[in-house]
Amino acid sequence: MLVETAKPSNSDTIVGFIAQAKNRESAMFTEAEGKSLLSAFGIDTPQGVEIPVGGELPGHLREPLVVKAISTTLVHKSDAGGVRVGVTRAELHEVATQMRDSLADFGHRLEGLLVEEMIPAGHEIIVGAVRAPGLGWTVMVGLGGVMVEVFEDVAFGLAPLSETRINGMLQELRGLKILNGARGGLKADVSSLVTLISRLAGPDGLLASLPADVTEIDLNPVIVSDTRAVAVDARFVVGEADPADTAAIQRSEVAATDFSALFEPRRVAVVGASGKRPNMANRFILNMLANGFTGTIIPVNPTADTIEGLPAIASLAELDEPVDYAFVAMPGARVAQALAAGAGKVRFAQVISSGFGEVEDGKELEAELVRTVREAGIRLIGPNCLGTHASASRLSFLPEAPLTPGSTAVVSQSGGLSVDILRVGAMRGIDFHSVVSIGNSADVNAAELVKSHLANDDVQVIGLYVESLGVAREVMDVLGAAATRKPVVLLAGGRTAEGSRAATSHTGALSGNHRLWPAIARQAGMTLVDSLEDFATALHALSTLDLGVQTRGREAVLFGNGGGASVLGADALDRQGVGSPHLPDSVVNQLESLELPPGNGFHNPIDVPAGTLAVKNGAVAQDILKTVLAGSHPALLISHLNVGIIQRNLGETHGDVTGNIIDSIGKARDESKPGTHQLLVLKTDGSAETEEMIKAYAQRARRIGIPVFPTFEDAALAARAVLEQGQQIHQASLGANGRQER
Ligand code: ADP
Ligand code: MG
């Protein structure tokens, strides 16, 4: 059979391939079938034919040839001696005999031969794709051979891939230099590789047209020479279609909901509060009262007349006016009925109760709950969550909640963590717009809330805690389609190195969550962080700084007291990919001409001893920083102060030196041309007295738009977040301008 005769002109052909593959032990397309599919999508493959063992070779194939075993049980051909390269026509029969014997040794039967033209040497690249639950196709590229086998030097992206993103993936490879001809090697035609990947994984690529039961693909290798990229091996694996894959894609566009009633509720019903045995719902009422909620609270209970001193109604049906928000905490089995009574009278209902879709037994209960709220015209948040915190109306599920209204909005898949986010976040200097714990998100989901936050002028920064890649994917699609861009920080749960499924392909084996989370974060332009502390640090920085200020490059200037400290600071920055090169000589000369007391280092890091900081009671910082900003353009200026030492040594003689330095940083910023973000590290010596001072200084700095961090490591993480998100915003505004011009 000629390979050329198997041109898959329509999807029937693919369906045929799938049906046949399911009958084979390997559950794969034959190599010839796979290659015919590739070439139908314009992907270069070698000329080749399938012949029976002992059969004649048609005349048009040019030597040298490659002979490959056809065997339904064989997956890795070369492992069983099933590939011979550089073969002549004259050798064909002998090679076939050897191959038959060799396969037999490994327990396989040689059923035929695939004979191909041999592609001249080039770089061997692996390109692959695997479906991940809820994500659709994830696409991998890596350098072949040792680079992938040993170093696992691969990059992942999510289909459909733009050419920009494909280029970005190639940039991520440590081995990219090899492709570009490092050490006198062949310089590969990278653009033909990009085209190949695009034909596979671009918007109109092959992947988009494959039915759900094709689950893994390896093109291993693709040989990239200085002129072309050719897929010389093709493995298409057929498996069980994952229902989540189709679900994610089918999720329909619901009309955008106005969430303002959730974030500024005036009337709140609390369903499940008890007149006898105080429970979660009672606590919610008490929290609201203690937090100073200014609207109306309506307890709902079939038997009690008053609850926590407030008049109660027996059921939501008794509401004379609609409520904005209903907090529902009662046994799961009774929730749907309770909400049905509120048809047309409840805008948002947040169901705290558990025992729904998170457990096998509760799936039907959850489906019933969703049907009920849809019919009742209620938007459901949860179930299996903790509640909503909305600073502006002093609504919170937390007692003694941090209620200073701010611009940071968080959506959390975990209820417990949303408590920590509020507590740790407030300590790190975040003022929240809102924190919503979405639990199972049976109705309102993370992507929908992100969409509403993007359109809400009160929200400037978005934080997400999610545990599912599918949810992250939905958020990515929302961010990609949105007209406005805001900084987004992603804290991801579940990043183990396990493969996402038992895989036949290399790509499948390498597609662990620990690779897919960074890939999705990068593609969506979200800053990915590893811990709650880093999450809070990044959100604090992004919400305090003016990200409209456009910076250039990835460099920082450090300024402060303590030589060793600033060297470690430069190291911490380096680990986050932020440089701190020497200042230009002209700037150093100007700093020297300020004629400060001795002992300064001016090259960057700028180290100044206490004697210098004492000049003008600290206001000298303004002169120094203005000089720096006049003669250089760092993206970041990071000041660091050892507060205990400065105030102990200088406090009595020079007053509030630390406070004066903080004000000077702000003034230097305001009196210089924009383009540099100011960050501040305030270090403690651990004494309660210093800690108290730092708290007050941190507030003072934040009021003038300077974020404050306890350590250099935190400041460095913040620096990365600020540079990443600044770039996103800048690119989005360029894109928007571009659209307007067209
Ligand atoms: P396997 O099933 O073992 O992965 P491949 O089809 O990938 O078998 O072949 C093994 C190796 O042989 C490839 O990695 C490549 O180096 C080489 N090879 C295979 N086909 C060709 C070809 N048409 N031209 C040049 N080299 C080839
Ligand atoms: Mg191969």
Task: Give your account of this protein's structure.
- The longest helix has 30 residues, at 712-741.
- The strands form six sheets. Strands 5, 6, 7, 8, 9 and 10 form a six-stranded antiparallel sheet that branches.
- Residues 1-7, 247-252 and 738-742 have low confidence and may be disordered.
- The protein contains 26 helices and 28 strands.
- The protein folds into four domains: 3-117, 2-Layer Sandwich (Dna Ligase, domain 1); 123-249, ATP-grasp fold, B domain (D-amino Acid Aminotransferase, Chain A, domain 1), CATH 3.30.470.20; 260-544, 3-Layer(aba) Sandwich (Rossmann fold); 556-731, Succinyl-CoA synthetase domains (Rossmann fold).
- It is flat and about 95 Å long.
- Strand 16, helix 12 (363-376) and strand 17 form a beta-alpha-beta unit.
- It has 742 residues and is α/β, with parallel strands linked by helices.
- The structure holds adenosine-5'-diphosphate and magnesium ion (MG).
- Adenosine-5'-diphosphate (ADP) binds at residues 46, 66, 68, 76-78, 83, 85, 116, 118-119, 124, 220-221, 232-233.
